Amino acid sequence: MTYFMLFLGLCFVLGGLAVASNPSPYYGVVGLVLASVVGCGWLLSLGISFVALVLFMVYLGGMLVVFVYSVALAADPFPETWGDWRVLGYGVGLVGVLVAGVVVSGVGEYMKLGVWTVDSGGAVFVRLDFSGVAMFYSWGVGMFLVAGWGLLLTLFVVLELVRGLSCGAIRAV
Amino acid sequence: MNPHAKLITTASLILGTTITITSNHWAMAWTGLEINTIAIIPMISKSHHPRAIEATIKYFLVQAAASASILFSSLINAWSTGQWDITQLTNPTSCLLLTAAIAMKLGLVPFHFWFPEVLQGSSLTTALLLSTAMKFPPITILLLTSNSLNPPLLTLMAVASAALGGWTGLNQTQLRKILAFSSISHLGWMTVIIIYAPKLTLLTFLLYTLLTSAIFLSLNTSHTTKLSTLMTSWTKTPMLNATLMLILLSLAGLPPFIGFLPKWLIIQELTKQEMTSTALTLALLSLLSLFFYLRLAYSSSITLPPNSTNQTKHWYTNKNANPLIAILTSLSILLLPLSPLILPTI
Fold it and tell me: Name one GO biological process term (chain B) (predicted).
């Protein structure tokens, strides 16, 4: 099980690498899908199944799908593919940065590349993540409203940035 | 800009700032910083000019990376100590990372490269917001965590900011870039003293906000953005150019004006802390910025520009000066004798 968790962690980093080294947004989305599926697996290993489910459905099934459709609408007809030299360059560079980070931070020696999996037991009758979400609607309603406003604000800002067609912000780039 | 968009962005800026400065949990502080970052993006890119879009992208990338670093530092601290209180940051890795992250947010050297270009790409009023209001939440976080910052890194960044703010500002002719470098060097003064006397940081920040607002609003009245325009702007607003000269000398830290008070107190506090060489270095480095403030003051008040003007003063009286200019200018020039009243209140 430990080795499986380690494999999931490796896949998460590889997914991030795929996002950062993408030659075109379509292939970057593949990296995002991989990273979020694997992140789901990590959350499941911690025992918080509800949050993992929410991540899957809302992030993958909602936002990522909407992103893919909107990118397809604003498509360029001949996107770059994986077989491009720039992708190799990005990949090598980012792997180099990662190795340097592990060496510099000393995490390799400190953690002995081991993994601790944690249980979320306790004396509660529902699972921790369920009651956490319930808290969001009762004591944590301020944070809930602020988080909701933050997301709505991001939507409005993106709409403000892309509106204007040929005289808006996007035409200048 | 569309009035609805303007309302949403302005309200979100106020909301984000308020959330960060009233928070005691790291998640709320981070949320406020992110809301601020997202909300100011349409304001920077308002003119849809390629330079403005580039400025927007640079601002967003740097601020998002800095917010993520703040979140990582609070997560590391939460992992090792189990609590999320902003004032109780104890893990050494967290402290180091937080110092670097706040430096990125504020624009301290070596994370200052984005600041002049972002200010140059935005309009004068947006540049005012970026220099004053958007600095307020990170300064608040610095004040709250002043016990947990990393002293050698902070002092190094502060002295380097005073140095580079002065030196790189010397060769500039664009006013927004000059004011960006002046902001960088003032931030250096603010952060050198935060561990020893955080109230002096707050005083420096408030007085810097006052002076910078007065300058940006005065420049906005005559729409001057570069040195050559400043030289001939006396024909449009002669009184404002005279007061602009005095405000610039105040910002430089010269004695009869209020800008002298923070430098005076910071040097005094540094000598009390046995850091006289740091105080001497900072004082000498602020001579560099004095040079370009003097150049600006000379350009704004001299009445003989290199080209000939057709008349001594323009006849049209349509000057939409912000009423705040009068208040801010008077305060910037005349506040020093009131410092015994200011000091107990901060």
Answer: mitochondrial electron transport, NADH to ubiquinone
Predicted-assembly ipTM surpassing the 0.90 threshold: no
**Chain B residues near residue A168 by CB distance under 8 angstroms:** 48
DSSP single-letter state for residue A81: -
Does residue A89 share a domain with residue A79? yes
d(CA B192, CA B225): 31
Cβ separation A143–B50 shorter than 8 A: no
pLDDT given for residue B115 in this prediction? 97
Q: A1 near A117, Cβ under 8 Å?
A: yes
A10 & A69 share domain:
yes
Residue B307: its pLDDT value, please?
A: 65
User: Which structural domain, as residue segments, surrounds residue A34?
Assistant: 1-120
Q: Point out which residues pair with B226 in neighbouring strands.
A: B174
Chain A CB contacts of B52 under 8 Å are: 172
Which pTM does this prediction carry? Answer: 0.84
Quote the crossing angle between the two packed helices B136-144 and B92-106, to the nearest 10°: 160
Same structural domain, A54 and A110:
yes
- Regarding whether A146 and A113 lie in a shared domain, the answer is no
* A80, pLDDT greater than 70: no
Task: Examine the domain organization and report whether A62 and A92 are in the same domain.
Answer: yes
The string of pLDDT tens digits covering residues A48-73 is 888 888 888 988 888 888 887 777 77
Residue A160's CB is within 10 A of a number of other CB atoms, namely: 23
Q: Which residue reads 């002719």 in tokens?
A: B173
* A172 inside 8 A of chain B by CB: yes
Listed residues A105, A120, A135: the one ending a domain: A120
Asked if pLDDT for residue A172 goes beyond 60, the answer is no
Q: Name every residue whose Cβ is closer than 8 Å to that of residue B243 and which is 6 or more positions away in sequence.
A: B218, B329, B333
